[in-house]
Write a structure and sequence with these properties.
Blueprint: H1 8-66, H2 70-75, H3 77-103, H4 120-150, E1 154-156, H5 167-197, H6 202-215, H7 220-240, H8 243-266, H9 269-296, H10 314-336, E2 340-342
Antiparallel strand pairs: 1-2
Helix pairs in contact: 1-3, 1-10, 3-5, 4-7, 4-8, 4-9, 5-6, 5-8, 6-7, 6-10, 7-8, 8-9
């Protein structure tokens, strides 16, 4: 018997399947293309926010000179820290990234300010765990600076506002160093920027917002540290869906530096180093306990999500953001030159 016969129904079925496959393939390609275009736009908007932030600082700084207050600014430590709160955080950072979030408001998939209830014990554990991570990040940056100095022969310096033994100056300094950045920077980055980027994947959002957080700090030293700390703060915010925890970590981390500076000025550097070491040991111990608790309660677990066929890969997403970040990176390199000296 001859089995080679024409089956019109079977042939039609396979043609339909092939047509559906080709249609789905086109839909996937189109969706990925749309996402790439979106990411390029997002990159330019957020890159522009960084530039606007830097320009606004320049504008407010020029106004100080225009008002004849430049000498007062140069000779007053309190004035410098007060300008940091008002001119930098309130009138530069907040408008720049607030407007960016407004432009990209359709990207938000959740609340602008995530404040999901976590529980006091677990929230405290996350804070101590985060502080332990910031201490590790600080150690890594110290190693990097030692390498650059001892091996490459370059010394990296940072801004120094000077010293003052006035109590009011100490208060303003503490607010400018610990409290204001914890509020304004967390809102700008872990609310506005992270909220915009989460649409494209949590891992991508955590990485990219940390890059942007590093770029606004104006020099390579602070970029590296801010990037590492940014990873910690963004990860914890995504994991807990609560930005208040990140604010506490940010504030405590900066407070360690502020307390050290105050003790150095009020007493001496030796006492400041001793106190800093004691505080660091306490936080490391608490961080280890917190880590054990978080592991025990499976707080690091995440819901496994199947990768969407319509989603670009991680590398492609980063590549789409790069054009918008070129100018901010160029500014970072240009600004870094004033902090690098040949030994």
């Amino acid at each position: 018997m001859n089995n080679n016969y024409y089956n019109p129904q079977g042939n039609q079925y396979y043609q339909q399947q092939n047509a559906q496959y080709l249609m789905m393939k086109q839909q996937i390609a189109y969706a990925k293309k749309v996402q790439r275009k979106e990411l390029v736009k997002v990159g330019f908007v957020l890159g522009s926010a960084i530039i606007v932030y830097l320009l606004l600082q320049t504008v407010w700084g020029s106004m100080i000179s225009a008002l004849g207050l430049y000498d007062a600014y140069q000779n007053s430590v309190m004035f410098k820290y007060a300008f940091n709160i008002i001119g930098v955080d309130l009138l530069s950072l907040l408008p720049a990234f607030g407007i960016a979030a407004l432009i990209l408001k359709r990207n938000f998939t959740g609340e602008l300010v995530p404040t999901k209830k976590v529980g006091k014990l677990k929230a405290t554990a996350w804070v101590f765990f985060g502080m332990g991570c910031t201490i590790v990040a600080n150690y890594l940056v110290s190693v990097m600076m030692a390498f650059v100095k001892n091996v490459l022969g370059y010394e990296l310096t940072q801004n120094n506002y000077g010293n003052s033994d006035d109590i009011l100056t100490y208060i303003v300094m503490f607010v400018a160093t610990a409290i204001a950045p914890a509020i304004f920077e967390e809102f700008s980055f872990r609310c506005c920027t992270l909220g915009v980027l989460k649409k494209y994947g949590k891992g991508f959002a955590v990485f990219m917002v940390s890059i942007i957080f590093g770029l606004i700090h104006g020099n390579v030293i602070q970029f590296v540290f801010a990037f590492l700390v940014g990873l910690i703060l963004a990860y914890i915010t995504v994991q807990t869906d609560n930005v208040i925890i990140a604010m506490f970590i940010h504030g405590l981390n900066n407070a360690r530096s502020a307390v050290s500076d105050i003790i150095t000025t009020a007493a001496n550097e030796k006492l400041a180093n001793t106190v800093s070491t004691i505080i660091m040991i306490i936080f490391v111990v608490l961080a280890i306990i917190a880590l054990i608790y978080l592991l025990y309660t499976k707080s690091f677990a995440t819901k496994k999500k199947m990768k969407s066929l319509y989603d670009n890969n991680f590398g492609t997403k980063i590549a789409c953001m790069i054009p918008g970040m070129i100018v901010p990176f160029a500014i970072l390199i240009a600004l870094t030159k004033q902090y690098v000296t040949k030994i």
